[in-house]
Design brief:
The protein is an alpha+beta fold. The protein has helices at residues 9-20, 55-59, 85-89, 142-148, 159-164, 192-196, 230-234, 259-263; strands at 2-8, 37-46, 65-66, 75-76, 95-104, 112-119, 127-134, 154-157, 179-182, 203-209, 216-220, 240-243, 246-249, 269-273. A hairpin with a 2-residue loop joins strand 12 (240-243) and strand 13 (246-249).
């Protein structure tokens, strides 16, 4: 998704006026001035194609994602530290990294503020189904499982289908009842069917989830550091600390989020993208 739009300054002035002036004030003394600026911000959002697998919830290192269920998508909360691990981990790429840019050129003849939203490509970690099995002796909400399967690997079939492929369910099937079947060649191991199942033991999934692919490093300038301890106090995974006056970073624990860099008051810490 790449979207750009503009807002005329006169409309922005009206909005700021309404929010800044007391209701009993006529606003005649209000002066609106805006200098040239360029601001960028990362946004992480869940797209409608979320399959409710909650893999993102399981792998979020700071508990910043509310679980999905049959009625709602997963939700990124204000606890998000922009580490992008959920973006890399979503099996169906339903979590998007978006760059939000706001630009105003005070010297331009065009009297408007420009906004743009652009998708940012991100590496994806390996997620692979190793094995998946159904316990046919249990009742379950099989139709919901089939509806949420992103690859149509999970289907419902009558007894004659199982007979035609010589598939043994381990139980006696009836002719007029639909039963679940998983095509292992199509299954990607997203775990949506497992997560949405009302019976915890109805489906067993074994899968492989590969390592995170980091595309940035935290650059430390020891000469600028003022030993304020804000990086240590705000790191959500205890990956950075001060030792004998120097900043120490555990790269194995670091999730490359924005907490230490945003809280550093002197710019001694910076998140640098790999070239």
């Amino acid at each position: 998704m790449d979207v750009s739009f503009i807002k005329q300054m006169k409309n922005l002035e009206k909005e700021v006026l309404l929010k800044s002036v007391e209701l009993d004030d006529d606003g005649e003394d209000f002066q609106f001035e805006l200098d040239k600026f360029n601001a960028e911000e990362e946004i992480i959002a869940v797209a409608p194609k979320c399959v409710r697998c909650n893999t993102c919830v399981d792998y979020c290192p700071v508990g910043a994602i509310e679980s999905a269920n049959i009625f709602r998508l997963a939700k990124i909360t204000d606890k998000c530290v922009k580490c992008e691990i959920c973006v890399q981990t979503c099996p169906v790429s339903a979590i998007k990294l978006i760059k939000n840019v706001v630009v105003y050129d005070a010297e331009s003849e065009n009297d408007f503020v420009e906004y743009s939203l652009n998708n940012v490509s991100c590496s994806h970690r390996v997620i692979r189904m190793d094995d998946i099995r159904i316990d046919y002796s249990q009742d379950n909400n099989w139709e919901d499982c089939a509806d949420l399967c992103p690859t149509n690997a999970f289907i419902l079939e009558f007894k004659k289908y199982f007979d035609s492929i010589d598939f043994d369910t381990g139980v006696e099937l009836k002719d007029d009842i639909l039963y679940p079947y998983i095509n292992k060649k199509l299954c990607i191991g997203c775990s949506a069917c497992v997560e949405i199942s009302q019976n915890d033991d109805a489906i067993t999934l074994n899968r492989t989830i590969g390592p995170i692919s980091h595309s940035r490093v935290i650059d430390i300038n020891q000469d600028l550091c003022v030993n304020c301890y804000l990086c240590e106090e705000n790191c959500p995974v205890e990956a950075i600390w001060l030792e004998d006056g120097d900043v120490v970073l555990d790269n194995d624990k670091c999730i490359r989020c924005v907490e230490c860099t945003n809280h550093c008051p002197v710019g001694a810490l910076n998140r640098i993208e790999f070239e």
